[in-house]
Amino acid sequence: MTFPLYIDPGTGSALFSILIGAAATLYFLFRAVVLKFKTGFSGGARTSLNSGYTRKYVIYNEGKQYFDLFKPVIEEFERNKVELLFLTSAADDPVFDLKSIYLKPEYIGEGNKAFAYLNFLSAEVVLMTTPGLDVYQLKRAKTVKHYSHVIHGVSDATTYRLFGLDYFDSVLLTGDYQGDDIRLLEKQRGLPEKQLFTVGCSYLDEYSNKIKNIPPEENHPFTVLLSPSWGPSALLTRYGEKLLDPLSVSGWRVIIRPHPQSQKSEKEMLERLQTRYKNSGNFVWDFERENIFSLSKADIMISDFSGIIFDYMFLRDKPVLYVNRDFDKRIYDADDLDHELWQFKTLREAGIALQEADFPKITEIITNAKDSETLSAARKKALDTAWQYRGESGKRTFDFMTKTANNI
Questions:
Q1: From CA 74, how far away is CA 85, in angstroms rounded?
Q2: Taking all residues of the chain, what is their mean pLDDT, rounded to a whole number?
Q3: CA–CA distance, 61 with 183 (Å, rounded to integer)
Q4: pLDDT digits (tens, 9 = 90+) for 186-243
Q5: Which of 22, 56, 206, 379 places its Cα 20 to 30 Å from the Cα of 359?
Q6: 145 and 93, same structural domain?
Q7: What span, in angstroms and rounded, lies between the C-alpha atoms of 112 and 344?
């Protein structure tokens, strides 16, 4: 008796991913071997497998949502007439719309195809927001001399998934405070000290200029912005309908802006909620690349432990309601620390705590939410701590990359 072969969708997807990754890897291996034959027997000095492709400065952008973070850096390279290779996994990355002489943008695909390319890259300094170097598929290329990670938010550096920053040569910080916990983890894990350099926050530099030029709305309705993080502890994932049901009958405009990663990792959850509230006339779903337009419209924010809380505090200087009592640290680097995270301590001082039991009366809580001098002072203190060198991030990042390359 014969039985039909069945592969469940999850296994099939994994096998397909492996096959694509293997094919891409073989392609780049073949290219490297060809280069080796071309350069290794040419009579000159023997060079690396990626000779002919070596670049001094490279940026890798994993998604177009990070373009505004890199834009001030790109502009600084252009201003100084220094060539920059910009690799992106977004075919529609806004970088392709820039008119630059020294910028060389290149689309390298997504997922395993991009990792296969990066694993055979040849460069002196590579800058990226992608964590997990030498942990998952993204491996250190032997022909890259220095890997630098730029933190893409002003919150704690230890809210990356486990070992997210461990194997980088340097980390660029938005504020000095982020370096303290990185040093603690290095000691705990027996890691060599990486370079830590505070550059400020480039995307907030960019947004602070943009938000000034957004015209105010005519007949502006009172607006609540719901903007959570993603994962099992995040607001939409954990509470969903419990919070959205009372907001749907509030009569206010409610902008729901899911974390970009939710669109990839929690698609089923988002589709369920969008279907449930498709007839709710006061709900607006925001999936735009930039959060600046929703931030500019919001009169108050509800969030969890997402870094966008501080974007709103710093750019709008308005109160925030937050729910993060059940944050599960176990999958994050923060789990190896025995003290409270800066962002949670700051939220207790600068935000208004919200519990699940408060959801049925959320309209009353929002109506009565008052700003105060105490909350305002706490926001100012957080701003000065987490967003240093405001307006200077592009130049400071450029200076770090060029100095690092020269030292190499």
A1: 10
A2: 88
A3: 26
A4: 999 999 999 999 999 999 999 999 999 999 899 999 999 999 998 888 999 999 999 9
A5: 379
A6: yes
A7: 35
Sheet containing strand 84-88, edge to edge, reads 103-107, 84-88, 55-61, 123-128, 144-150, 170-173, 195-198
Helix (H, G, I), strand (E, B) or coil at 253: strand
Alpha-carbon gap, residue 54 to 33, rounded angstroms:
15
State whether 218 and 362 are in the same domain.
yes
The reply to whether the predicted model has a pTM over 0.90 is: no
Q: Both 265 and 359 in a single domain?
A: yes
Nearest-angstrom CA–CA distance, 87 and 89: 7
Pairwise CA distance, residues 94 & 86, whole Å = 12
- Residues with Cβ within 8 Å of 44's Cβ and at least 6 positions away in sequence, in order, are none
The tokens for 285 are 């779903």
The residue range of the domain holding 308 is 208-386
40-99 tens-digit pLDDT: 333 332 233 344 457 999 999 999 999 999 999 999 999 999 999 999 999 999 999 999
